[in-house]
Amino acid sequence: MANNPAGPIMLELVDEHGVTIGTAEKLSAHQAPGRLHRAFSVFLFDTGGRLLLQRRALEKYHSPGVWSNTCCGHPYPGEPPFAAAARRVGEELGVAPALMAEAGTVRYNHPDPASGLVEQEFNHLFAGVVASPLRPDPSEVTETVFVTPQELKERHAEGVFSAWFMTVLDAARPGIRKVTGTAAGW
């Protein structure tokens, strides 16, 4: 299940229905035109219903320095998406979600104009709550902020966000509402 730390990071290739059909090295799966692979996106909220955003570290080879959802990434081949999502939240933000639930899936193809890489993903979505203080890994995360829906709208209008952000947020909204309730406005 785990990747070899000395070797390349491998991803699961999937068909249009999310069925595993093979593996590929992470960078090659993202090179144009991109190969459809399994991914996950996490949306964590504080107890007041504000969404935790992260600004990706400047050192990241893909979409550096842009704002995005709480956490995203790829399961290792054979790793359940839920386990991968919880693992990466811990690795990137230094916390474990107090609650996290499935919030659907979405399939998309988003080229990144800055890098030329392509996000061709079958993405598993998760929504939950974070109640512990964050301890972000600076090699992964430059900055974090909790935002209301209105603050997100303002930030999105003026800032640079990942190419996939609005696609995954919109797809996750029904699952997000189950976690935050309708009063939070998501």
User: Between the first and last Cα atoms, what is the distance in angstroms?
Assistant: 35 Å
Number of strands: 9
List low-pLDDT spans. none
Largest sheet geometry: 4 strands, mixed
- Tell me the CATH superfamily of the domain at 10-47 and 71-134 and 164-181: Nucleoside Triphosphate Pyrophosphohydrolase
Oligomer: single chain
The averaged pLDDT comes out at 93
Identify the strand order in the major beta sheet: 6-3-8-7
Which features characterize this protein?
single chain, 186 residues, alpha+beta, Nucleoside Triphosphate Pyrophosphohydrolase, four-stranded mixed beta sheet, three-stranded antiparallel beta sheet, 4 helices, 9 strands, 24% helix, globular
Offer a concise description of the structure:
The chain is of the alpha+beta class. It has helices at residues 26-30, 81-93, 149-158, 165-180, and strands at 10-14, 20-25, 37-45, 51-56, 67-68, 71-73, 99-111, 118-129, 141-147. The longest helix is centred in the last third of the chain and has 16 residues, at 165-180.
Write the layout of secondary structure elements.
Layout: E1 10-14, E2 20-25, H1 26-30, E3 37-45, E4 51-56, E5 67-68, E6 71-73, H2 81-93, E7 99-111, E8 118-129, E9 141-147, H3 149-158, H4 165-180
Parallel strand pairs: 3-8
Antiparallel strand pairs: 1-2, 3-6, 4-5, 4-9, 7-8
